């Protein structure tokens, strides 16, 4: 190993790897937001539950004793700065559903998840439930109109971009940690001093990601989680005040701490190198016969 105190640099490499794992988990899992949903006109109907990540999610829709599992996928229109999580299973149907919401047209009933089956025939049970409540489910769907409660496409896209930058700078910090274990780079950014920079930027990118998504949550998601069933005017569910951050969001704190620990470890290593005892200096006089020994 070319560097002194290389074990400390190896530990920074491990923390960078842990940070990268946390970011990948955050990217790939669907628990950025978790929320209960209540039927707006009659809370006794049942409590539904949903969770979604940056790209997709799951909805467990409950009406009395009937449960239906629904897949959710985000769709955005950047020209109007709006996103929502559609329950349709193909790109064309999601696009059509977006148009229907904007125009206030009739919405198709959400199809069941392809990976899960309902305990009963959902459509049959919904019709029975509607009769019990003296409400016609199909008429309510036809009466559904658009409400301006979509998510901000700009904030969502910015979140994705900064999370991608977080993973990039985490990879860079891991690369230069390994480089400093194996050799002695000369330039500032590739040396151990550069590890301050790369880890600092990675921690900053993660922090900005959390701040931006917190803004998206506070302004939009906390009032309406923006899925098909909460964007209806009639026959809709409400999530106002019920949404919470999930583990896919909070795990980014682990990534931030990993990089802060790395900065502390690099500082500690440099401190040890600066304060380690200097090698002894032997002074030999010209007339000293001990010079013959050397």
Provide a descriptive summary of the structure in words:
The structure is a single chain. With 294 residues, this protein is an alpha+beta fold. It has one domain. Residues 118-122 and 124-147 have low confidence and may be disordered. It has seven helices and seven strands. Helix 1 runs antiparallel to helix 5 (153-182) and helix 1 packs antiparallel against helix 7 (247-275). The radius of gyration is 29 Å and the shape is elongated. The longest helix has 30 residues, at 153-182. The protein starts with 5 loop residues before the first helix and ends in a 19-residue tail after the last helix. Strands 1, 2, 3, 4, 5, 6 and 7 form a seven-stranded antiparallel sheet that branches.
Distance between the termini: 30 Å
Main β-sheet description: 7 strands, antiparallel
Output the helix-strand order.
HEEEEEHHHHHEEH
Strand percentage: 5-15%
- Averaged pLDDT, please? 83
* Gross geometry: elongated
C-alpha-based Rg, rounded: 29 Å
The total beta strand count reads 7
Structural class determined from secondary elements: alpha+beta
Low-confidence stretches: 118-122, 124-147
Number of domains: 1
Discrete helix count: 7
Measured as a percent range, the helix fraction is 40-55%
